[in-house]
Amino acid sequence: MARRYDPHRRTRIIDAALSVIAADGIAGLSHRTVAAEADVPLGSTTYHFGSLDELLVAALRRCNENFVRTLRESEALAAGGEAEGAEGAAGSAGLADELTRLLGQWFAGERGAIELEYELYLAALRRPALRPVAAEWTEEAVELLSRRTDPGTARALVALMDGVCLQVLLAGGAFDAAYTREMLARIVAGGG
Question: Is-contact 167 173, C-beta < 8 A?
């Protein structure tokens, strides 16, 4: 039998891994469960991903892209820069408003997708191979926000957004936009 060329197989395997994790958690992830979900031979998963950690790295990297892409595509965040300095408090409020809007938009989406992203993100606590990828998200978000404020303030904003997201997810509550906006504005106003 001739070998079938499948240029999208690696992507399908990553998508399947995300589906398995969403349904059964990381504990349910195996090359076998992913192969079944992707409808590919078991050997394909081990060919593309020699270990489950390699597969988890690819899955986490895919998840990281989602929110960073949202930050990158925000016209309000891209528009800041030098004009921001002249605006002072108005610029601070604008940054806090935009970050709150983006978080609200993210929470308005499917909660399962958010939980999946954080499950992978927090898996780095026990899986050292994931730590550099988890850090990539933070670094890229800090870099993007540093266009509107200083790097220290950008890092504090990312930490607050992470904390708000974890509290909402772990406590099962609703996203409190007013509180989040106020806390983000405090950080921006206190920055350099």
Answer: yes
